[in-house]
Automatic annotation (TrEMBL):
Annotated 2Fe-2S ferredoxin-type domain residues: 12-86
KW Iron (keyword) present: yes
InterPro entries: 2Fe-2S-bd, 2Fe-2S-bd_dom_sf, 2Fe-2S_ferredoxin-like_sf, 2Fe-2S_ferredoxin-type, 2Fe2S_fd_BS, Aldehyde_Oxdr_Iron-Sulfur, Beta-grasp_dom_sf
Record has Disulfide bond as a keyword: no
GO molecular function, one term: oxidoreductase activity, acting on the aldehyde or oxo group of donors
Annotated organism of origin: Pseudoduganella lutea
Protein name (record): 2Fe-2S iron-sulfur cluster binding domain-containing protein
Keywords: 2Fe-2S, Iron, Iron-sulfur, Metal-binding, Oxidoreductase
Cofactor(s) it depends on: [2Fe-2S] cluster
GO CC entries: periplasmic space
Taxonomic lineage from the root: Bacteria, Pseudomonadati, Pseudomonadota, Betaproteobacteria, Burkholderiales
PANTHER family: ALDEHYDE OXIDOREDUCTASE IRON-SULFUR-BINDING SUBUNIT PAOA, OXIDOREDUCTASE, IRON-SULPHUR BINDING SUBUNIT-RELATED-RELATED
């Protein structure tokens, strides 16, 4: 008897944290909602949902974007990294470890976005002084005001040449 193979998934593909997924979502679904509601990657936070707070920052092909302003379907064949793909509790990314070391968070709501921005910043033409770092991080708001410690964490990782 002839075996019947399951049909290959049909649909636009997206790679998230190294795993390829077939997107089956309404074309109006934002990348943020796709990550949180469809893939259950809730580390990426929804703050303003209007591109103003940076809580939803993820990497797409190595560059940071606000996931609330992007449509999932517009990122077909792209590689997305969320905070879950950066490090793990057992093996923190150097930036995650530096945020812990410098108390770069209080409530932590902004933290995933801050860390994703901070990691991307190190590959951008950002000046090295504290003022330049603040400017480059200005799209990420922290309602708790942990800014001084966030800058200290970034500068430490930069100084160590870490990524
Ligand atoms: S939730 Fe995307 S910028 Fe605020
Ligand atoms: S630590 Fe609370 S919003 Fe940043």
């Amino acid at each position: 008897m002839q075996s019947i193979k399951p049909a290959a998934p049909i649909g636009p593909a997206i790679t998230v944290n190294g795993v390829e997924h077939t997107m089956r979502v309404d074309v109006r679904t934002t990348l943020l909602d796709y990550l949180r509601d469809h893939l259950h990657l809730t580390g990426t936070k929804k703050g303003c949902d209007h591109g103003q707070c940076g809580a939803c920052t993820v990497h797409v092909n190595g560059r940071r974007i606000n996931a609330c302003l992007a449509l999932a379907m517009a990122h077909q064949d792209d590689e997305v990294t969320t905070i879950e793909g950066l490090g793990s509790p057992e093996r923190l990314h150097p930036m995650q470890a530096a945020f812990v070391q410098h108390d770069g968070y209080q409530c932590g709501y902004c933290t995933a976005g801050q860390i994703m921005s901070a990691v991307a910043l190190l590959d951008e033409p950002c000046g090295t002084g504290d003022a330049a770092v603040r400017e480059c991080m200005s799209g990420n708001l922290c309602r708790c005001g942990a800014y001084a410690n966030i800058v200290a964490a970034i500068q430490q990782v930069r100084g160590e040449g870490g990524k």
